[in-house]
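Follow-up to my earlier ticket, as requested here are the two runs.
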Amino acid sequence: MTDIVWPNSTSPGARPGEGSGRLINCYAEALESGARASFVRRRVPGLARLIATAFPGCRGFHFYNGDLYVAQSNRLSRINVAAGVYSQVNLGALAGIGRVTFARNNKVPTPDIVCVTENGAFIVNRTTAPTSFTDPDLPQPVTVAFLDGYFVFAIRDGRFFTSGINDITINALDFGKAESHSGGLLNAVAFGEQLMLMGPSSVEFWQNAGNATGTPFSRSSVVARGLASTFAVAGTEYGFSSLIFIGDDNGVYRIDGGYQPTKISNADLDRLITAVADKTLLDVTVAVTEAHAWATVSGPNFSWTYELATGFWHERASYLDDHWRGVCSVQAFGGWVIGDRTTGDIWLLNPDIQTEGTNPLVMKAYSLPSIGFPNRVAIPRADFDIIVGQGKVTGLDPIEVDPVCLISWSDDGGATFGTPLKRSLGRLAKYMTNVVINRAGSAGRYGRVWCFEVSDRIYVGLLGGSMDGILRSK
């Protein structure tokens, strides 16, 4: 018997035959000592529709005092909930279709909320359309953040302006400038007690020094690692503990504190990012479910999700798409709200949901190659260790009541796969269901790669597997 080994972290390789397994819409979670496997591969959290709005796309969120402000295509809306029913109020025009940033100060009794778009800065009002930030001392900003009572506006030329404390007034002399490397500013984020000025070739760390004139912040450190694009960073959201960003070298980095970022991406993801010619198409979205902290790095044709606790990666792709529809996030309404790249849907990330709205959430796991190179191996039988008997008493039949999986295999290193075979995963409480493939042919000299796939709407736990192998000559 030979073990069928499933990966803990996705690694497709640069070409078929180089990889060491893939996880698509599923992730590895460690089991306690004594379990029949060290890890289980579970399906990723699904998307439950919070509300379907009338406006497409998502540009950014801000949540305050029970109100969720949503920037969409040329529009700003407010969503709240009463008696379990979510409703949307159309606040008015917010010109543009690009991503935005929000910030809120501590003014009493009513804080100021500011939004920066590609068309300038705006003051957000709860019941009326946003109004332009008309202070003539503020140049066109790129982003806005809030730290220690001050709004901080990043300016493309490398300057950043600070507001009056808990106010929206701007003094023309209250600015600092990132000058360690040329290239200007792409973003200014408040992370912990630090202001991070992120440019295309460096990140400067500034702290509140209580300066009496000019900006209250002073530079404390510089890292020679730039930001790939303005929105290739996330992690400042309330409820998230680490900053994740895509660097100017096409790697993905993590900062938990201090000044030194840690590279967390592997060579496969680095290649995908490198291939994106327009770096403004890159973004990072963060969320937390069941104490799993996720950071999803997306480009125009890929989405990879990193789990902070384990350091493992998995791929995420929406139905009939090559990347995830989710973009932007905020902790709100007792969970994490996710936007949609194209539709007007607003979602809640939910680990108990196995769909994205009405679309299936297709889980795929590709095993590591089982090889006897250069010999061929006949495989009379293969068994798959899966948590079975998870069908539902009521629901859609058969995809919830009598669920199945699809199993296929490749003998050319994963370049091509045969026709999938359907196997039952067991109705409710059918815990003795066997998932077996008989007469599975002969593996080639490059070994056998198995593909396990489930789209049915039930819990799935993939633990392991084994196969009989009879060695053949070359």
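Run two:
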Amino acid sequence: MVRLKDVAQAAGVSASTVSRALSNPELISEATRARVLAAADRLGYRHHPAARALVTGRTGLLAFSVPTLANPFFAPIIAGAQEAAEEAGYELIVAVTDSSPERETALFDRLADRVDGFAAAGPRSPASQLARFARSLPLVTLNRRVRGVDSVIIDTPDGVGRLGTHLAGLGHRKIAYLGGPTGSWLDPRRLRRLREAVPDCAILPLGPFPPEFEAGARTVETVLDAGCTAVIAYNSTLLLGLLHRLTMLGLSTPEDLSLACADDLSAAGLAMPDVTALHVPAAEAGRRTVEHVLSLVASESRSAAHQLLPVELLTRASTGRPRELPMSGG
């Protein structure tokens, strides 16, 4: 195994100079650094993060927790986060919490002295725990805002309000909202914004639902029996299940039921039909979150800052006028 002192001997410098060349290149001349890198490359030396930590106090590792990998919503988020970390010379550890506050808090505590910063997508831990953790290590939450903790929020509440306005404009007066998942910080805000956007419509809240095909399929009869003419689902997989069950019943969209969704995951490889949806900048959110963590790592400041990412309404063929309403015109 090639050691740091082997590189130092081959380059004709001290071991401390090799460490500086690999971890703090601005502290030595370009010529010396080039000689060290050439020797390291020739010998096949790899600079271990633990060795870098001894010199710089940093590990070169970031952690990113997600509640689940079953929901395709998180795939582009992780991809964007990974890209941002690699561009900055960091490695990204992705950890799955299974939506468990206890597991999440244990994960934070276990990794606190192993990483330089932490990102958490949709964290479920109590606000007090997240604030405590942010005081000891750079932390940025994605899609949850906590006092004293930096955050990046995808503005799906505003988007769901716009979906409601779109449906109301088509003549819908009773709209079902398929919400979830359990413990979501954003979901009650989406429902509240929907009600504010369409005060003349009756909103039927259903859920919480996991982001699963079968859960969506089970909602169809409830929605139809309640007299709803339109549905907004918080998740694409949930909506696909609803659409499949609707088709099995011999019904069609938008003729029998208009469908809209709070995310559009066609970019993540999910085969989506022509559904009115919100384009969610998921990869950008992952990138922004990691960049925000890195800015905290590089700064002594701990005053919380927040980023809000807008969404785009994509109007497609799955929404139309309710069947009982005649078309206007001459």
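The only thing I checked on run two: The longest strand covers residues 61-66. Let me know what else you need.
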